[in-house]
Amino acid sequence: MAEKVYAGKSVSVTDDGYLTDPNQWTKEVAIEIAKEEGIELTDKHFAVIEFIREKTLKGEALTIRTIGKSGLVDTKGFYELFPGAPLKKASRIAGIAKPSSCV
């Protein structure tokens, strides 16, 4: 594990850049992680990120399909918000562990 500084805050991250402690996450940290991914966060991004955090912190496993059925965004919209690897990028920005469904 490594330490990284986001928004002036030192956080613990895995080798892949995922926060090891979701309690270290803040919106400011998310904005800086998103910049690394080439994404500028909007209110829509934050709505999806907060959904992901809420479900994951309750112990629920997430899939792209689950997010597509959330009512916040459809699957196509999810890919548009987080291009390339949406679940992987959104999870990293949300400050949660890398989903087991992501390689």
Give keywords:
globular; 44% helix
Structural description of this entry:
- The chain has 103 residues and is mostly helical.
- The protein has one domain.
- The protein contains five helices and two strands.
- The protein has a two-stranded antiparallel ribbon with strand order 1-2.
- The model has no long low-confidence stretch (mean pLDDT 92).
Helix content: 40-55%
What's the N-to-C terminus distance? 19 Å
> What profile does the largest beta sheet have?
2 strands, antiparallel
**Beta strand count:** 2
Query: β content, as a range?
Result: 5-15%
Task: State the order of secondary-structure elements, H for helix, E for strand.
Answer: EEHHHHH
- Rounded average pLDDT: 92
| Number of distinct helices | 5
Fold blueprint:
Blueprint: E1 2-6, E2 9-13, H1 27-36, H2 43-57, H3 64-68, H4 75-81, H5 86-93
Summarize the entry for a quick read.
This protein is mainly alpha-helical and about 100 residues long. The chain has one domain.
